[in-house]
Amino acid sequence: MSLDRAVTLLKSSDITDNRNGCALVINSAATATNVSDIIRANILQLLVPKLNTTNDDLKMRICWVVNNLCVHDAGRDAVHRSNIVNEFPNVLKSRPMHTETIQKLSWAITNLARHPQALREISRSGTLGGLVDVLNNGTEDQKTAVIQPLCNLVLDPDNQMQFYRNGGAKPAVQMLGSRDQKTKELAVTLISFVTTNHDIVREGLLSEGVLRSLNKILNGEGTEKMQELALNSLVNLSLSSKAEAAILDQGAVSPVIGLLSSDSVKLKTQAAMLLSNLLTNEDIRAHVRYLGWADPMSSMLQNGNAESVQQVVRCIINITFDNHCRYICSKSGITAKLKNASTRLRDKTVTDLTNTACSNLEVSVSKDIEKEVDDAMRTGRVTKVSAPTASMKDTKKDDFEGLDDLLGPGKNKPAAKPAYTKPKPANNDAFDDLDSLLDSGPSNKPSNTYNKPASKPPTTSYNKPAAKPVQNNNDFDDLDSLLDSGPSYKQPASKPPTFNKPASKPAAKPAHNDFDDLDSLLDSGPSKNYQTKSATTEIDLDDLLDITPSKGGHNKHQDDDIDSLLADIGGGKHNSNDDDLDDLLSGISGGSHGHNNDDIDDLLADLTK
């Protein structure tokens, strides 16, 4: 087909001619080799002024032309240079809303967002506000359509604020309760992406009741993928201090404990990641004491991969701040299992974390606490929490019109040609060639039939954002980098811009995070390899035990260890360099003796003098 004919039709003042011209371009743009010809023919310049038309069908066809061009790199650049983006807000805010137009424009925006300069124009033009307006006022199908580009756009931290200020929090939370699986999954994806950077956004979602909906999903009102996305959302929300108490009050802690026993490695890993955040809160540590977490944590240590073991060891490090939990760990033999995991995996991060956890577990607890825990275990107060099972099945076939409809394929996947489908005739007669896409008018119809490719991007299910420690860099290429695996469809579209990855591991809070054992953990926060919210600040084990150093005693909170702490208890003086148990016991008794080649006899002799 000749683009000359399309140009002639698009220059016409007749709406029918314009619609037929768009139909020709839509199908031509489905082939990558035709894109350069379309650009040279200045098709976009002809379309920009026509996007203000009051004819919904013409407006929809123009949006489809833009979408098909934006599938290709050269087409995205041409669309960017045409300034057609500035017309998008008017299309989105026109009334009454036209569902097909919103769907086509949503696909176009998502594809165009792969172009960095165009993305900035999308943000500046008010298009994001228009998408949020549809999210507030559109039908279910229209809302589902605009979530797709919103998921891409809110990867930009500035756009997260735009989304919130334009009133996106309330409708996003409402859509978590959708009965439609596709809509619900897209909504929880949007929540997980928009909560990565700003406390004001997190707390705004909290005030709209997001935790109630996420808790229902955790407890099985959805698919397993939705559970994964809900966990990821809660990881991000937990970075706000206000969210910790809310998560506890809403009853979300118990299902997180239960998911440590899930059959899904992803769910177990993400549950451990979230729990390590929550356990920085003293009330939550006390709440989980007898919720049966020790067995699933032990199982993860024995059978998990490096990533899942890293997350569960971080849980153990944080949970050891609670004396009761520390004693439960000791009774459960977790120290030996930590060491075995380190040996089995030979992973440096695992080794560093297990060394810290083992050091913490060496700190003893009082006899009263031991008795309380022993009594609780003997009387059956320890509650086993089962893993919540998803009530809905994940979509297996490629019929999910979700976020992956708009995401780019793997590097070696061929492109599918998007095309145009005219609304089905009232008599339901099938049409399968370009003739049926064209309104009556052109007499030079092609003699060959053209089997239309899919009338919208091919559909598939998608995997949720990976439960991986966050890397604060910009080394991902598209939204599939945030997902565990690339989509299985063939569509070269909608790679989003490279903004900061959504956080899947807690951010450092506070910033000083370099601990080696429980003493220094309490003194200064977690190690550089373990970014999390520290459970307390500027204290060490002296403060934790409410120890008051004797006059002139050795406790300057620098390089404190158990040696100097015990020396402070006894008021003794000793050299903190190369301290050993001799020095500690000498400090307790106040005795003095030489420490060369001391053995336990010497130590006991000091104690009994």
Key terms:
53% helix, 609 residues, mainly alpha, elongated
Q: What would the principal axes of the Cα set say about the shape?
A: elongated
**Radius of gyration, taken over Cα atoms and rounded to an integer in Å:** 31 Å
β-strand percent reads under 5%
The helix tally amounts to 33
Secondary structure category: mainly alpha
Q: Quick one: biggest sheet? A: none
For the termini, the CA-CA separation is 106 Å
Helix content: 40-55%
- DSSP summary, beta strand count: 0
Detail the poorly predicted runs. Answer: 397-436, 441-517, 520-598
Mean pLDDT: 75
Topology, element by element:
Layout lengths: L2 H9 L3 H14 L6 H6 L2 H5 L8 H15 L2 H10 L5 H6 L5 H14 L3 H10 L1 H11 L2 H14 L3 H9 L3 H7 L5 H14 L4 H9 L2 H9 L5 H14 L3 H9 L3 H7 L5 H14 L3 H6 L6 H10 L2 H14 L3 H9 L2 H12 L2 H14 L5 H12 L55 H4 L80 H7 L16 H4 L17 H9 L10 H9 L10 H9 L1
Helix pairs in contact: 1-2, 2-5, 5-6, 5-8, 8-11, 10-11, 11-14, 14-17, 16-17, 17-20, 19-20, 20-23, 22-25, 23-26, 24-27, 25-26, 31-32, 32-33
3D architecture notes:
There is one protein chain. The protein has 609 residues and is mainly alpha-helical. The protein has a domain at 540-608. Helices cover 53% and strands 0% of the residues. It is built from 33 helices and no strands. The chain has helices at 3-11, 15-28, 35-40, 43-47, 56-70, 73-82, 88-93, 99-112, 116-125, 127-137, 140-153, 157-165, 169-175, 181-194, 199-207, 210-218, 224-237, 241-249, 253-259, 265-278, 282-287, 294-303, 306-319, 323-331, 334-345, 348-361, 367-378, 434-437, 518-524, 541-544, 562-570, 581-589, 600-608. Helix 5 (56-70) crosses helix 6 (73-82) and helix 32 (581-589) packs parallel to helix 33. It is elongated and about 90 Å long. The model is unreliable at 397-436, 441-517 and 520-598 (pLDDT under 50).
